[in-house]
Amino acid sequence: MAVLVNILGEAVKCGKVKSTGVFYELLKIMEDLLLRPPSQRTHPSRKLILLNLPTGYGKTRLSVVMGKATFEGFTDSFLRVIHVIPTRNLADDILRHAKAFDLEASAQYMFANPSLKTPYFLSPFVVTTLDSYSFNFLKIPVAEVKYVISRGLGHAEIPRHAIYTALNFIDEYHTFIFSEFSDTRSKGLEVLGLATTFLYFIIRHLITNSITDVVLSTATPILTPEVISEVTGISTNQIIQVSYDLSSKVGVNTYGNRIVINDSEFNNDRLNKHITTRILRMSLDDIAKKCVEVLESGNKCLIVLNTVNRVINAYNSICKLISCGEGVVTIHSRFRIKERSELINKIKTIDRKGKGIVVASPAIEVGIDFDADVLISDAAPIPSLVQRSGRLLRRIDGRPRSGVYIIVYDESLYDDRGKTYTGIYPASITSRSIDAINKVISNDVVIDWKLIFKGRVGNRISYISLIDPVISANFITKNLVNVRYLNFLTSVMSLLTTPKDVSKVKSILSSFIRYYPIVPLFIPDESIDYEGLGKVIDSYAENYISYLLPIELSDYMIYLISDILIKKPNTDEVAILVEDHEGSLSFTTVSRNELIKTFIEGYIVRGGKSFFPIAIICNNTYYNPNLGLNLSHKLING
In the chain, what's the furthest Cα-to-Cα distance? Predict the structure, then answer.
């Protein structure tokens, strides 16, 4: 049986994709690991696969090919593939891959195309975010959140059945930990612990109950079989590690529970990409000047800065030096859905033309395809720096190319208490990341940001050698796993626990992977006031989703947006967009102090009738289609 090989071969034959000979070998191994009945497998006790492959080698393709095999009915081992992603930014790339294989993919995440949605995860190939996955996993079906919350009703076992009978493919798992939305300003590492703990919970529950297979995929491996075993109690014999290693024998080689890949065709391209790494202290004006130099030399420059404020200020600095037309684009998390789609298309145009500047927040780390000649990045934890490097000399085209990776490190960007760097990332992890990189480049050793290998190859070391000094196994188990939360999640899975019980928990936590809810702002094109809200909502009813902008609704964020909230005259009541059980839009008001609680609880009663909060209604005072929502005037300490 060579099902996966045949599926890929057909796509290659039609000219839709390209592949190497070694990748076909890998597909044969994956078929043995996943498609065959357990009694016929080389590793019959295996339930978890750690897939550690470099950017561009085909992690997404493996998932899609598995999905195609399921769609065509070539396996009885699972009924579907559920591809779990850290952010919706990654979805378009996966859906494009699926299209290349004529695979009918479905999607379930905030703002997904309604025609693709599969809220119960019943399609053969499902792309979903960890948020949606966590709700379906924990008995609050995303299709029925409003009914579970308001009435305690819901078909919880349908999506759970879908998960239990699926190959659960959890992609780029490290970014669950270092999310752009993590509010480390007040809680630090505790925030990171929720997502990491939930990840361990998924693994432990699915595997210890012998339910289904799980694949954890990443280009930045921070988990090992030993670490997973220590936290979850799973035997290392149940874990297979599939890793890339340039220093190993060419081909696909099996060593017990380790499968090692070395693909000379892939290496030939990656070794022709030469990246010089520098750590510099640069102002935003310095960054702007450097990028303009790159642009004037006919190349592409990507700037990735940790905060929206720094992104906007850098963009403005560039626009003082040159005319910012189609060749200069900024993108970050505070754009409406409408503009975000347009900006992504502009980025694609710059990429295709081979000349331009993109200024971005960490939103570009996953899912946005861009091939820069020069990358300038704020200092960040090593997994984020690795992810950003994937946008530097990205194309696998066989051409020798040289690029520069400038990491901007400024000690003045630590907060006053020394807990965070740029108000986003934990200070300790960031400083250790910079120290690890400095130690290498100060000895004239080259960091290979593209290939994975152990030790040194010539004067190169792989980026994975930087991970353990920064995020060791001991660090993960002591700082990023909340044992009490892990045990609590396990108790939720009791057969006696109802959706209504879980919804009460949700009302306390806001979500199962973060401390604050993700809440859209509704920002129309025109300036609005309280008296005219009814007419505005009626005029946008058919297309209001395009005018939504998701934020993490913390107390600090409420302070930032306080100037643009629509308030009921002479009160502290704030206008919010709501929906009734029939799907009709209207608005109501809640106290500013009750905003977070209202969106966490998920429903509100007015006149004896239940309504579901959709978005906070805001004025467009600080919104610019080219810059997004600019709240810099309210920032504390930048």
Answer: 74
Q: Nearest 5 degrees, angle CA 317-CA 352-CA 386? A: 65
Pairwise CA distance, residues 230 & 479, whole Å: 14
Instruction: Report CA-CA distances (Å) from 68 to 62, 100, 181, 369.
Output: 10, 11, 33, 23
Q: Could you give the CA distance from residue 576 to residue 551 in angstroms, rounded to a whole number?
A: 14
SS3 percent helix, strand, coil of the chain, rounded to 5, is: 45, 20, 35
Q: Is residue 337 pLDDT above 80, yes or no?
A: yes
Question: Could you say which DSSP state residue 35 is in?
Answer: I
| Separation CA 141–CA 159 (nearest Å) | 7
CA-CA distance, 219 to 59, in Å (whole number)?
9
The pLDDT tens digits of the residues spanning 81-125 come to 999 998 888 888 899 999 999 999 999 888 788 888 888 999 999
HSE-up of 391 (CA within 13 Å, CB side)? 30
In angstroms, the Cα distances linking 175 to 121, 180, 434, 478 are 23, 9, 19, 19
Angle at CA of residue 556, ends 551 and 560, nearest 5°: 70
Strand 251-255 relative to strand 258-262, pairing: antiparallel
Rounded alpha-carbon distances, angstroms, from residue 514 to 23, 284, 365? 37, 31, 19
Q: How many other β-carbons are positioned within 10 Å of the β-carbon of residue 347?
A: 20
Element (H, E) at 285: helix 284-296
pLDDT for the residue 364: 73
- Tokens describing residue 421: 């760097």
Highest mean pLDDT among 75-79, 126-130, 144-148, 212-216: 126-130
| Dihedral sign of CA atoms 566, 568, 571, 577 in order | negative
Q: CB within 8 A of 129, min separation 6: which ones?
A: 84, 85, 86, 87, 88, 91, 108, 109, 110
> What would the DSSP string read from start to end of 64-126?
HHHHHHHHTT--SS-SEEEEEESSGGGHHHHHHHHHHTT---EEESTT--GGGB-TT--SSEE
Residues 311, 357: contact at Cβ < 8 Å?
A: no
3-class SS string, 349-406: HHHHHCCEEEEECHHHHCCCCCCECEEEEECCCHHHHHHHHCCECCCCCCCCEEEEEE
For residue 559, the SS3 value is: helix
Asked whether 58 and 23 are in contact (CB, 8 A), the reply is yes
**What's the start-to-end Cα distance of the chain, in Å?**
59
CB neighbourhood size of 148 (10 A): 25
pLDDT digits (tens, 9 = 90+) for 253-264: 999 999 999 999
Tokens of 260: 């090692």
Nearest residue to 197 (alpha-carbon basis) of 415, 489, 395: 489
Q: 45-59, 78-92, 434-448, 478-492 — which one is most confidently predicted on average?
A: 434-448
3-state secondary structure of 419: coil
